[in-house]
Amino acid sequence: MPKPLNTVITGSTSGIGLGIATSFAAEGWNVMLNGFGDAAEIEAIRAGLEEKHGVKVLYNGADMTKPEEIRALMSEAETAFGQVDVLVNNAGIQYVVKIEEFPEEKFDAIIAINMVSAFHTTKAVIAGMKDRGYGRIINVASAHGLVASPFKSAYVAAKHGVVGMTKTIALEAAEFGVTCNAICPGYVKTPLVEKQIPATAQERGITEEEVIKDVMLGPQPTKKFVEVEEIGALAVFLCSTGANSITGAALQIDGGWVAH
Fold first, then answer.
1. CB-CB contact of 117 with 64 (8 Å)
2. What radius of gyration do the chain's Cα atoms show?
3. Could you count the other beta carbons within 10 Å of the beta carbon of residue 3?
4. Residue 1 pLDDT
């Protein structure tokens, strides 16, 4: 395993992606951040991680719906770091509404950002990983990559697709020292999830408190949100020698949700 590792994490300016980036930086690994947000806030995040952990932290604001920007992101990371050892496909958006009312442009954007972008990033780096005999591709899917919920047709379709693509990449890379796994979190209280609360309340005709208690935490036997630090720790483990034989897996970190 090369040290330090050089990592690219899409959708990493907040939420799960930032949690993973923080965990990687704490291990002494260089990080390429990506995502949207206030420019000053993103710079503060980037500089803070770099100063605290003594690593190189870069930022590229590539739009995950645009393949040419994705290719430029991956090229910049390879130029700056020399190589990309770990790719975390985390970028995602959400929209909650019944399928007959689902705006087509929203459906297409969710598929593009949550699933298709992972194809473009992976295509850009996997040949180099194979040549070097080491690589880790981690796709942040969801419990919704394994089970479904109402009003999330695009998200559930995209995350199921991510799990399927994970298995295929794992098979193609298995003899080259490259693993590919999907992390499948339950509900994590991120900005993405917080935006779902009022939308789900409106769609189901219930209160926001009922959304949290019954819709989000109801399926999770622990009755707790998953913490971003827990997901970061799992991502770090998947890059270790102890995880050399873990590939093609959809790893649940969902408080027991999918065990039902």
1. yes
2. 18
3. 8
4. 78
Name the DSSP letter for residue 222: T
Measure Cα distances from 250 to 6, 10, 31, 95, 254 in Å: 23, 19, 24, 23, 12
Q: CA separation (Å) from 141 to 31, 91, 171, 238?
A: 20, 10, 18, 15
With 0.90 as the threshold, say if the pTM is over it.
Answer: yes
Taking residues 186-196, report their average pLDDT. 88
Length of the chain: 260
Among 3.40.50.720, 1.10.10.10, 3.40.50.300, 3.30.70.270, name the CATH number for the domain at 6-186+226-253.
3.40.50.720
Catalytic positions are 155
Within 13 Å and on the Cβ side, how many CA atoms surround 253?
Answer: 21
Phi and psi for 148 in degrees, rounded to 5? -120, 160
